Every structure is written in C-alpha cells, then in structure tokens.
Amino acid sequence: MVIRKRDIGLVPWGFWGPVSIMREMDRMFDEMGRGFSYVSMTPPGTRMPAVDVRDDEKHYTVEAELPGLSKEDVSLEMDEESLVIKADKETSNEDKAEGYVRRERGRMSFYRQVSLPADVDVTQVSAKMEDGVLRIVLPKKEKAEGSKKKLDIQ
Q: What global pTM score does this model have?
C-alpha cells in the first residue's frame, strides 16, 4: 500500500478563524445543554417556566407562563444585571372530604433568571399577572443626546 501526502497549502482563516471557532464552540455547548432536562443550579423538582423576551423601541417585555399560580405565589427580584422569577405553591392534603382517591399536585416550584441588557431603567419596571401569564415591562434608559461628538481630522 502506498501512502501519499497531499500538500494543501495555506488555508485562509475565514470561517475557521479564532473568533469563529470560539462562537461555534459556544453554540455547541448551548445545544448540548438543551438535550438535558434543565441541568442548572436550581433545586431538584424545580421547573423553569417558558419565558419570552421582546425588544420594542422604548422597552423590553418579559412574559413567563405560570399556569395555576396567582400573583401571591410569585416573587420577583431584580438588580442591575438580572431578573429572577420564583414561585412556590403548596396545596394542602387535608381536603380528604372532597373525595380524592389520588392527588398529584402537592407542590409547585418555579425558578427562572433572565439576564438584563445594560440599557434597562430598573427604577421604572412594572409587572402584572393575568390568566397564568406574568408580564414584566422593563423600560429602556433615555439615550443621552450629547454623547456623540464629531471630531475633526487633521
């Protein structure tokens, strides 16, 4: 058997440049994580609600599906970098008089952390719970008009 070496010459960085390779690795790790059942730092038995984030001209809107929960069951925490949605609901097992033979809704727990962009005005945030959907409106900070300056080239 004869083995021949092929001279492929120099390969331009193009798609496989250092930054592109890092982005591709990040994408692969993200996809790998989707295959697991919410592997995270959350306690066992805690579910992550479905969350949608919309970006409009003047604000961001976060919508989280929290079926079966009321606003009293949900807590929101926020700092300059993230928004945390937590929910805990425990049903009483003392309603045996209602005729239950089996009851599978003992405790419900949700946890979700959403990273916030730098332009969120954390002092003006509002939240509303309606029909099992939590809607959080995060206004954007006003852009400074005088932040750009034209420079003369000499």
A: 0.59
